TrEMBL record:
This is Xaa-Pro aminopeptidase. One of its GO terms (cellular component) is mitochondrion. Keywords: Aminopeptidase, Hydrolase, Manganese, Metal-binding, Metalloprotease, Protease. It comes from the Eukaryota. Belongs to the peptidase M24B family. Its cofactor is Mn(2+). GO terms for biological process: proteolysis. The lineage of its organism: Eukaryota, Fungi, Dikarya, Ascomycota, Pezizomycotina. Pfam families: AMP_N (PF05195), Peptidase_M24 (PF00557). Its EC number is 3.4.11.9. Residues 70-206 form the Aminopeptidase P N-terminal domain. It comes from Exophiala xenobiotica.
Length: 496
């Protein structure tokens, strides 16, 4: 960030570093001489932006926040940390997600690229961020190219933030209309010593098809064509190192998602259900009713033997009274997700066999959560090995033959993954890394017993998984999803 821009922000915002204020958007800084705007003064609450800001949505955002729980200052600090990892005169180029269409002009729900969102807080499509480190290695410039405001387009698609807000709200040092990026990006790329990006040139046949179906190429295709392959380095390893460790503010946002999601699970357990689809719909409703923005992913609602499929999402079967139902779902808040799995009896009371198998999984899950601390010196892979050993011991005690790598058949998935802006966060970040304070992960042991003569008959066709979202602290775990009950007595007590 340039000294001039820093000084401008300090003069304009004596009580907070970044973020627009309500007194004026257009002429507030003209008296300092750093900007020359029209003499018109506009209250920010009277303007329309492409996403909530404090002035228009004070029920969602506190003063200084760019997205729920995360301040504009924190976003600026993230860009500073990224720039510090770049060579002198290098640039990082990150694109917003494109709108994905399911058919014709009917689109899927928009999900912003997590790296782009992490660095900018900007939640619109067709945008490009360029973070350039200067030759001295002591400063950087933040370029943000976005869709310009367009009254005709906004009639159909809703408000856009535009280039003025890119400066005044999202604190870009340089901005411009993304439709003119072909005249701006080549100059930045040409002057850069190296380019760090994960933008790749897509399949040309697929690009042609999208152009035919929707009338224009996707922006990422245009961006990719403007890069110089000889200068390109992968950005993802650097971003993973930054994003893997959550700040206190991020953890608090994830805790809010976990609290709302956990309550949704507990409320669902209170009721008697006969159809998976009804439970699915109720769970999604409860996520939002409890404060989340939307569901984090397609829920699994798997009754009986359907639970033997790890990612069963059809959710279209009848729930039998004597079965278990496995529910894997979570909400999203402020861009951050919660991930919870609970398994409970459809009729509210565990049979003896159901209780024995459930308690075996729960015993192991509690032990593994206790190891989610920096002082334990464990990695995700190490935790998984411990899970296999402990689950094998528990299953032997209730009559399972655990010879010949039986645990790999009964527990076929990994114990854990990183969580954050995505359900499987920081893709490519190693599972061998020792967990430290700020890592946020899932702990989700499960046992899935096929209808096979090798296994005790009374356990066959049962699938049980118990999952919580956990933040690693130095001396103790911080469970983000405690509102979802999981003790046998608590689950059964919900129907009393």
């Amino acid at each position: 960030m340039s000294m001039r821009r820093t000084l401008w922000r300090t003069l304009c915002y004596p009580n907070k570093v970044f973020g627009i204020t309500t007194h004026s958007l257009l002429s507030r800084c003209s008296r300092q001489g750093f900007r020359s705007y029209s003499s018109l003064t506009v209250n920010a609450a009277d303007l329309a932006f492409g996403q909530p800001v404090h002035e228009t949505h004070p029920h969602l955002l506190q003063p200084g926040e760019l997205t729920p729980g995360i301040t504009a200052q924190e976003y600026a600090d993230r860009r500073t940390k990224l720039a510090a990892k770049l060579p002198d005169k290098a640039i990082a180029v990150v694109a917003a997600s494109d709108i994905e269409f399911r058919s014709g002009s009917v689109f899927y729900e928009f999900h912003q690229d997590p790296d782009f969102f992490y660095l900018t807080g900007f939640n619109e499509p067709e945008a490009l961020a360029v973070i350039g480190k200067d030759a001295t290695g002591t400063d950087h410039t933040f370029h943000l190219y976005v869709r310009e405001k367009d009254p005709k387009a906004e009639i159909w698609d809703g408000a856009r933030s535009g280039t003025q807000a890119a400066r005044d709200v999202f604190n870009a040092d340089e901005t411009g209309d993304v439709s003119r990026v072909k005249t701006m990006l080549p100059e930045l790329v040409g002057a850069a010593s190296e380019v760090y990006t994960d933008i790749t040139t897509p399949d040309p046949n697929l690009s042609a098809l999208r152009r035919f179906l929707h009338g224009k190429p996707q922006r990422t295709t245009e961006f990719a064509e403007l890069l110089q392959p000889s200068k390109i380095n992968r950005l993802r390893p650097i971003m993973n190192d930054l994003r893997a460790f959550k700040s206190p503010a991020e953890i608090e946002v994830m805790r809010r998602a976990g609290k709302a999601s956990g309550r949704a699970h507990t409320e669902a357990m209170r009721r008697a259900w006969t159809h998976e689809k009804q439970l699915d719909a109720y769970l999604r409703y409860q996520f939002v009713a409890n404060g989340c923005d939307t569901s984090a992913f397609e829920p699994v609602v798997a009754a009986g033997k359907n639970a033997l499929s790890i990612h069963y999402v059809r959710n279209d079967d009848i729930m039998q009274d004597d079965e278990l139902v496995l529910v894997d779902g979570g909400g999203k808040y402020g861009g951050y997700i919660a991930d919870i799995t609970r398994t409970w009896p459809v009729n509210g009371k565990f049979s003896d066999a159901q209780r024995d198998l459930y308690q075996a999984v729960l015993n192991v899950q509690r032990t593994l959560i206790a190891l989610c601390r920096g002082s334990a010196n464990v990695s995700l892979d190490k935790l998984h090995s411990i899970a296999e050993e402990y689950l094998s011991n528990e299953l032997r005690q209730i009559g399972f033959d655990m010879s010949s790598k039986a645990i790999e058949k009964l527990f076929p998935h990994h114990l854990s993954h990183y969580i954050g802006l995505d359900v499987h966060d920081t893709i490519g970040y190693t599972r061998k890394s020792v967990l430290h304070e700020g890592h946020c992960i899932t702990i989700e042991p499960g046992i899935y017993v096929p209808d096979d003569e090798r296994w005790p008959k009374h356990f066959r066709n049962m699938g049980i998984r118990i999952e919580d979202s956990v933040c690693v602290q130095e001396d103790s775990p911080y469970v983000l999803t405690t509102e979802a009950v999981k003790e046998v007595v608590d689950i059964e007590g919900l129907r009393d």
